[in-house]
Specification:
The protein is of the alpha/beta class and about 400 residues long. It folds into two domains: about 150 residues, NAD(P)-binding Rossmann-like Domain (Rossmann fold, 3-Layer(aba) Sandwich), CATH 3.40.50; about 200 residues, Dihydrodipicolinate Reductase, domain 2 (2-Layer Sandwich). The strands form three sheets. It has an eight-stranded mixed sheet. β3, α2 and β4 form a beta-alpha-beta unit. The radius of gyration is 22 Å and the shape is globular. It binds alpha-L-sorbopyranose. The site of alpha-L-sorbopyranose has 6 residues, from α8.
Length: about 400
């Protein structure tokens, strides 16, 4: 499966050590494609890996655009048909960075073709698709293949460290988890109707786009699963201009080249964890001034922690067992070599950023492939569970929509 390629050797001129390669083929080259490319390009230069990822081929429908993306992001070849990309002998791992409506088809085909798979979040657009993907991943695992979901925020050193604090009992029994994921790129009602605003392409709106991260992160940090939700969703701007060059002006699109928004702009829900801890979630792309504000707070019997993605190198921790007179939240700068992933990076205080999560994600996946760990986390089964939570949120929101205030 994996090819062989000599390393450059070290500065002293030692003879090169052959390192097996892992050919990566990526489908999609927009925002997530660029972010994943960064991860694949960088990971082998920062971490000492048992397999060296090679950016073998990138896939996309538009021949000129995919060739340009290959050049910009460092891919050796470009394919206009994802099936051809999967079939390539130099591709052992398929990375899916397309909109949700093609995740299931590509992932199932790639797994059937014997490839390892990384799939962007949310795993799918529906529970049925996610079930098919999880079943395909389970069958492929028996053949030694690895499948993982791209919940990249787990790979933030601060979040991995927060999980460690919880697991070590530093917070004691958990009581509350509060997660908000706030962006503002849809505040402008003239923002065009891109695929992220169409149910047939995106599955859902802020819920799947941001809420999926929130749910995964809450479960990852606490090590617990959510059971039971109660939700509200809203679409504040129901029609938007069609994007420039939109191919269709079908009956579904009204006059003036505007189209219907078929997903939520915001989703709010409360939930219960297996332990009985309570959680609240808010996901919106309508919070003016909030750019990428993923905030998480966990309160336990023995302490609390708080995190804000807009200050991603920091974790606030309060140890409630300390004397009240001197206790309080303190800021941990998560850049020490003893913090997750930091050993490979810069000296303490030399901060990391958003893109490093994709490097860490590539690192964890390559290690899993090399170790033959066919159940890396987050697995497709975990992606399916998140999808089930999202579906429960939609179901609850649909029911809640019928409860109207009672006049007295
Ligand atoms: C857009 O809202 C988006 O790019 C998400 O799709 C990503 O998953 C999130 O990390 C940042 O925001």
């Amino acid at each position: 499966m994996a090819g062989m390629e000599p390393t450059d050797g070290d500065a002293a001129g030692a003879s090169p050590r052959p390192v097996p390669t892992l050919g990566v083929g990526m489908v999609g080259y927009a925002f997530m494609g660029a972010a994943h490319s960064q991860g694949w390009r960088t990971v082998g230069r920062v971490f000492d890996l048992p397999l060296r990822p090679v950016l073998a081929a990138i896939g996309g429908r538009d021949p000129a655009a995919v060739r340009a993306a290959a050049q910009q992001h460092g891919w050796a070849a470009a394919e206009t048909d994802w099936r051809a990309l999967i079939a390539r002998d130099d591709v052992q791992l398929v990375d899916i960075c397309t909109p949700g409506d093609s995740h299931a088809e590509i992932a199932v085909a790639a797994l059937a073709a014997g490839k390892h798979v990384l799939c962007e979040k949310p795993l799918a657009n529906s529970v049925a698709e996610a079930e098919a993907m999880a079943a395909a991943a389970e069958a492929a695992a028996a053949r030694g293949q690895v499948a993982m979901v791209g919940f990249n925020y787990r790979r933030l050193p601060a979040m991995a460290y927060a999980r460690r604090l919880v697991a070590d009992g530093r917070l004691g029994a958990l009581r509350h988890v509060r997660v908000t994921y706030l962006q503002d790129w849809l505040v402008d009602p003239e923002f065009p109707l891109t695929w992220r605003l169409q149910r047939e392409h995106a599955g859902s709106g802020a819920l799947g786009d941001l809420g999926a991260h929130a749910v995964d992160l809450a479960q990852y940090v606490t090590g617990e699963a959510l059971v039971g939700v109660s939700a509200l969703t809203e679409t504040f701007v129901r029609e938007r201009p069609l994007p420039a060059g939109a191919a269709t002006e079908s009956a579904a699109y009204g006059p003036g080249r505007r189209g219907r928004v078929t997903v939520d702009d915001a989703a709010l829900f409360t939930a219960r964890f297996t332990s009985g801890a309570l959680a609240s979630f808010e996901a919106t792309r309508m919070a003016a001034g909030r750019k990428n504000a993923l905030r998480l707070e966990v309160n336990g019997e023995r302490g609390s922690l708080a995190f804000d993605l807009e200050r991603l190198n920091e974790l606030s921790f309060h140890d409630h067992t300390e004397p009240a007179v001197s206790a309080g939240f303190r800021r941990i700068l998560v850049t020490e070599p003893g913090h997750p992933y930091l050993q490979a990076w810069w000296p303490p205080g030399h901060a990391l950023g958003y893109e490093h999560t994709f490097v860490h994600q590539a690192h964890d996946l390559v290690q899993a492939v090399a170790a033959g760990n066919t159940a890396p986390s987050p697995s497709f089964a975990e992606g399916l569970q998140v999808q089930q939570v999202l579906a429960a949120v939609e179901e609850s929101a649909a029911k809640n929509a019928v409860y109207t205030p009672v006049a007295d």
